[in-house]
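step: validate -> pass
step: tokenize input -> pass
step: predict -> running
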Amino acid sequence: MRRRWRRRRVLAAAALTGAALLLAGCAQSVDPIERLGEKAAQRVRHPAPARDVAYRHWGLRAPLAPAPSPPARVPLRPRAPRRRGLPPLPVVDRVPTSDKVVFLTYDDGAEKDPRFVDMVRELRLPVSMFLTDSVVGPGYGHFARLRSVGAAVQNHTLDHPAMAGLPYAGQRAEICGQQEKLRSRFGVRPRLFRPPYGTYDATTLRAAADCGISAVVLWRASVTADALAYARGEHRLHRGDIIQVGPEGSTGPDLKDRTLRLLREAQARGLTVGRLEDYV
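step: predict -> pass
step: emit ->
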């Protein structure tokens, strides 16, 4: 009886040892390619956050500093009227703020580079797009993608005329018409308006106010093919500056390259990018 019991114990131990060796052999025989695949799968499950590497991808020397939380928006005071009867609508080319921010604005909507959408998304740029219907043409889908990654859409007229000197009915049609176009496309009526070429008169302000605009936005600095140009004041960026990035000719730097040069200049001045709509 004892012999039978001992024999069973020996056989059971042998079976367990064999199973262990078999499992060890299977583990050692895993294909190295499968192991690499498992590591890749782990990286996919836990990808590196885009913000950790995006600045290098776009050629910046350091990450773009996040904009500070903006204070409660204080209504801007209207520009002092040059003549009696000028509507009390603010006209701004910079924002009075102690925050170390500048504001990026883009005109017309002629350039529709999908790489710029990637740049806005990866760098989390709070840009404002002032759109002209006749220039955007059938390309509103591009600006819907920009809105989906954080860009704001504002009014730059239907047909891009020089506004100063036009009769009230014509100016109102240009501004209100684009308000309706943008509302039908995006479901929002813009609060901000930029007159083409930066020119306006008292009639422009009255028409803009009647179309639901709360501020007319100009710019203190603009991006040219090879430099920054300044409309007034010191020729360097200051906190609160509104910057215009206008359309460039086919032979000039593209939109992302002009933006990159602007971001480098802002970083060199200790500035970052704020959302204009949070301050105006």
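step: describe -> The chain has nine helices and ten strands.
step: cleanup -> pass
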